[in-house]
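Cross-check.
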Amino acid sequence: CQPVPKPESRVEVCDLNPCPPRWKVTPAGPCSSSCGLGLAAQLVTCVQILHGQEVLQEEHLCPVAEKPLTSVPCVIRTCSYEWSFSEWSECSTSCGNGIQTRQDFCLSSLTHKPVNPLFCRRFPKAIVVRGCSAGPCPEQEGPLSPGAELQPVTPATHLTRAAAGTEHRHQDLEVPLPAGPQEQTKPGGGEEGTAKRCFLCVCGNLFLNATGIINMTGVGSRDCTVAIGRPLREEISVTILESSLNCSAGEVLLFSGRMMWRTGCRKLPLSLINSRTNTLIVKQRVVLPGNGVILQYNSRTATKKYYQDCDQQLFGPQGEIVNPVQLPDQRQEVVCRTFITVAPRQRISIRALNTDLGPEGNQTHFNYILVRDVSTMKTVVFRGKQQFLWQSTGSQAEIEFHE
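Predicted model, tokenized:
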């Protein structure tokens, strides 16, 4: 404004009339609630300034429509809530294995009374269902079948190359070998081709030996599924020795793995199937009694690397899973995975006992645990310090630890 002449400053008297009465609010008093939403009372009066002094006036002289509230909402701190539980129920069975349940309640830490469960939605909730054992049933003779008896949680079993020997045949992994009076011998003879097999109980089993023969003929069920598992770094090849499937009747054989999917019926004998990974599921569907196939499987070192160095493969019926230690020089690039494979007749339950993925307010899209149900390929993501219980629909699951 420098080029423009500045006008002279002037002071003029504007209005000497007294100001109209107005409402005056005193500071609010204490909050009515020690936590959560409450009300605080405040004093509202009608005053007027006369000769520089504040004079109390009657309320009707102040504008009624503008009168402030005499109580206002207040929050001192967020109320704390916590989960509480009833006692465990009796075991659901009088003998053998069963379950116990308990009820959960959301309690206010101030009143110690139940409130709406929505108040506890941010807090991890402990389990409300657990397994129990009432001891062996009277009709049982001898010990329970492997894996049927409840045991304390132990580190999950890792299948190593040493477990491939016949002296470790399914024992370490608590996967029962089919037992029975029949014996199947690999064509051409040889002790290495001899394995005990029960024609009626082969279905639903997991086979972990380096090689073997699986007889799926005359199993007595329409659908028969078996699984073969080996350590990471290996792959499985299967040869169909014999087949009596009736293709025109709709009988079929299905092979599935993490990286392959194949069906067939005609020209099966002597055909070769490669799993391309360390696990393979074989499912047979028959219509006519007595039909089926006889398989021979072998394992070998994988021709292509399909895993990462921090990946793990678990076959044990129970155990603990700890986030694998990632490689120091690849911490930001490698996603460590844990593969779980159990017998086809079994299902998988994963319970997070302790998780710490950082503060909830400091989460990123790259900081989470992903669990995948292999049979449906559905995935669930868990973040923060959430304790969760996840159950599979099939016998295979994958966990990815994203840093």
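The CA atoms of residues 184 and 316 lie 27 Å apart. Residues 22-76 form one domain. Passed to J.P. for a second look.
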